[in-house]
Design a protein that fits this description.
With about 280 residues, the chain is α/β, with parallel strands linked by helices. About 45% of the residues lie in helices and about 15% in strands. The strands form two sheets. A seven-stranded mixed β-sheet has the order 3-2-1-4-7-5-8, with helices on both faces. It has a two-stranded parallel ribbon with strand order 6-9. The structure holds guanosine-5'-diphosphate and magnesium ion (MG).
């Protein structure tokens, strides 16, 4: 069935959408996932944040940039610095370039690029500020995960809801669309976690700041190639992190801490990226 939209406040083509893909040793997946996003032909840009992958993932991206100039971008960091800081690096990069919708997506096809547009629509038409590709709402599913992953993921979601009372069914989800105003509001200096806890804290901060969050059902498929970077440390950080953010929100004015003042925000953008941005836009 073809969709008919009666009212468009802005021509869609003027909105800038970008998918941040963090990578660590994803040489088997990266070219295919980039092609899959561009083959949608829905005007998505892609920013890969590679942490010095020893398998040469960054070089594959550099070769692809020749094919997709102005659409595909790469930020390289030295060494594996963690998923959370990779995303924060990407968020700052995207804010400085005034992208309107900023997506998080894994490189390993666990998240289907075809669902990007459903997340976008939840924000654009559904008026959500954040939309989450959710495994645990009606219609959501997981394919091919071993028992222990189900256990940690489900357990983590239930634990998070019990401790924080946050009404989100899939708080550890890593397939997310943020509208820029959310990321401009959050003080990234206050976000300290790296793995699952990072994903939880970003949603917690968005919720505490009063943004509208929507969960879109997705089917999550376990990676077919490459290896997961999940570790015991990430799980431990999740457990401690959840207790910590709730403690801070109850006793230490967490909301104020994660709310970026306009002055600080301007400083982040100019200090980190102005030079690069001006150079590129000449
Ligand atoms: N840049 C960067 N990417 C990472 C890091 N750790 C994991 N990733 C990427 O983050 C995404 C999710 O990681 P993955 O290992 O699939 O985690 P899982 O889905 O929980 O098993 C993948 O695209 C990884 O390559 C990291 O330390 N730095
Ligand atoms: Mg994965």
């Amino acid at each position: 069935m073809q969709k008919v939209f009666i009212f468009h406040p802005l021509p869609e083509s003027t909105l800038k959408k970008i998918v941040i893909i963090p990578t660590y040793n994803e040489k088997e997946n990266i070219a295919a996932i980039v092609e899959a996003v561009f083959s949608l032909q829905l005007h998505y840009h892609i920013l890969v944040i590679d942490d010095g992958s020893p398998d040469g993932t960054a070089q594959i991206v550099k070769d692809l940039i020749q094919v997709y100039p102005g659409q595909l971008f790469l930020e390289e960091r030295t060494g594996k610095l963690g998923l959370g800081t990779a995303y924060i690096h990407g968020f700052k990069w995207c804010i400085a370039r005034k992208y309107d919708y900023i997506f998080e997506m894994d490189a390993d096809f666990s998240h289907n690029p075809k669902d990007l547009e459903r997340l976008y629509e939840a924000c654009f038409f559904g008026k959500a500020d954040v939309s989450i590709g959710s495994r645990y709402v009606k219609g959501g599913a997981i394919e091919n995960w071993p028992f222990d992953r189900h256990f940690y993921s489900r357990g983590g979601s239930i634990f998070t809801r019990c401790i924080t009372w946050m009404p989100i069914k899939d708080p550890t989800a890593g397939f997310v669309c943020y509208s820029r105003k959310v990321l401009e509001t959050i003080n990234f200096d206050a976000i300290r976690f790296v793995g699952y806890a990072f994903q939880i804290e970003m949603k917690f901060a968005s919720w505490k700041l009063g943004f509208l969050i929507s969960e879109v059902p997705i089917t999550f498929i376990d990676r077919k190639v490459g290896v997961s970077k999940m570790s015991k440390g990430i799980i431990k950080e999740g457990v401690i992190g959840v207790i910590r953010i709730q403690f801070e929100s109850l006793f230490k004015n967490y909301r104020k801490k994660v709310n970026q003042s306009a002055a600080t925000q301007a400083k982040i953008i100019t200090a980190d990226f102005t030079k690069e941005y001006v150079a590129e836009s000449k």
